[in-house]
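Internal QA ticket QA-208
Title: Verify multi-chain structure generation after dependency bump
Assignee: T.L.

Test input:
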Amino acid sequence: MTVFRAAFIFCVTIVIATSAFATEPVRVGSKAFTESVVLGELATQLGNNAGVPTIHRSQLGGTRVLWEALLAGQIDIYPEYTGTIIQELIPGTPQDAQTIEDALRRHGIGMTRPLGFNDTYALGVPETLARQLSLRSISDLRQHPALRFGFSNEFLDRKDTWPVLKTVYALPQSNVRGLDHDLAYRAISSGSIDVMDLYSTDAEIDYYHLCVLDDDRHVFSAYEAVYLYRLDLRDRAPAVIKAITRLEGTIDASHMIEMNALSKLRKVPEADVASQFLFTRFQINSTPQVQSMTVQLLLRTCEHLQLVGVSLTASIIVAIPLGVLAFLWPRVGQIILAVVSVIYTIPSLALLVFMIPLLGIGTWPAIVALFLYGLLPIVRNTLAGLSGIAPGLRESAIVLGLSPIARLLKIELPLATPSILAGIKTAAVINVGTATIGALIGAGGYGQPILTGIRLADNRLILLGAVPAAILALLVQGGFGLLERCVVPRGLRIKSRS
Amino acid sequence: MFRLDSVSKSYGDEPALDGVSLAIAPDDTTAIIGPSGSGKSTLFALLTGLMKPDAGVVYFRDQDISRGSIRELRQRIGYVIQDGGLFPHLTGHANVSLMAAHLGWPKIKIASRVDELLNLTQLSPEVLARYPAEMSGGQRQRVALVRALMLDADVLLLDEPLGALDPMIRTELQQELAKIFRRLRKTTVLITHDLAEAAFFANRIALLRHGRVVQTGSISELQDNPADDFVRQFVRAQHLNGAQP
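Actual output:
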């Protein structure tokens, strides 16, 4: 038990230590793709330059996460596109600026004027293939039903993209797969797909020699970049709003493509890309904070340990009593098992998004999600351990005259420890892996470099997150081997003589 | 000590005990014997309150055991099962002193009681320092007996206590147990399927078949005046197996 107590104190210390950093600066969010991160970085540096402490919670998943976080006050500003606002955030609004602004205001949200470029959707095919099949417009795709399409999931699901495109152009292709946008570039260059969706400012269009097909039936609407911000910022930090409005109309498509190219293809950190732009455009000298790799790794390790440690401790505290309840009252047990099993099957990203309205973004929703996932293996193994006790031993304990509580504490739970510990081990190893998802809602951890690495097609960065995560999983595995010696009674570890 | 009054118990449609009436005499050893499926184990579960009878009453010292505190009753019962029923996560000593410690006995009292019982059972203290898995089968049974005697129970219930041992050790331990029981003069109920063992320990034997008591008496009564053909066959079959009462 002392081991558990020590682990608990350790975790609490980490939580307090990390939350001590949290003051109340202006928080800029960005989506998990390079352009959004660069725009987020621009706003962050302008805010700091205006003398208001501003931090950047970069690459927080997709539109839903950012929008919910903005409404919940977890972030104050994030870059968005007018097309997305109309189609996804406030659907059913006419497309003029005044109505959009009014609709947003009802949510307590303000919007800057367009920054200067239109990052609309487009379809791209490799130039060689375009020449071969003489593809110029999207209509030309109709003649080639065997082409393989690979679209980002957002593109597949949005009301204004694939579903409309398919009907308007009467596209016959049936081989349509959903995949990550950055991975789609790799897929198309390796020849595993033929057509992908593009953002018109993507730097990779040139890099991978893709041909942009003409939207000859004008399906895609305009996606002008703007910033959305909480209206309460007008009172809290008017200087920041003033600072970001300086960007209105200053970034044209060629600027944005160049910045995307610098960041994605030449691996210049987004912070440097943004400060270069601010210097050439406004002569602003902003010094972005760039952490050394060691400091970053240390920070990520702390974050990851916090996520796993706190959630696992909570799972243990809740799941073992649940397992005991399930053992004592089988009917209640069936309900408990059903509930924790259903929780376990909820996809992690969905669970995280559900929790944003309740807990916001960052560490806590991730910890709660991991805690919920940790319940099933521990509850199940506690129940299995208790039910697996030989009937003779259970009867002996009863006939000795021990009270039910003494029986549970002195006989049944100790006999079940190997099984319970195995359950905790499973939960811990699963948690180490699943915690990488936390980066999508700003919880940090090893998922952060993995996410950035996928976005920048940078294997080195992916490994920077994946390798420590794998090592941590192995350490957890090994650590539990040691823990077994302390926690599992010696009498259960030795083999019988006869 | 124990008295069963027309006790019946069935599992679903399968009757395990069918109107059994039986009195267990105090300060003596009674053996309950019968082929497997005759209801021996059910009878034991009823004596310890692990099961409740469907009909009839089980009395302990003239008190209906379904009334009053079953835990108090159990603390007056010493219980040894086939392979001892020792808790594998506890040392012999912890197994033996578990209940005494639970009841808040002072350490000195526990130590002197353990010493006394080690003497009685001819067990060396070093065996008690071991975990059950580190003991031989015979040692396990002796430690289990010490545990059963720790609280100076009024009655000992032994369920095939020698069943898991190989024949050599079995004979040896049989002799020793008989000696111990003679010294203790405690009410003892022994369940066995072995007539020779029953005769060896017990003055009174109750023979069970199909959930009914077929005959109660000494071994010579069973041999000389079998109640029916089944008793005759049962006694003869056990003789053919080479057992000598």
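Spot checks passed. Residues 8 and 18 of chain B are 5 Å apart (CA to CA).
Status: verified.
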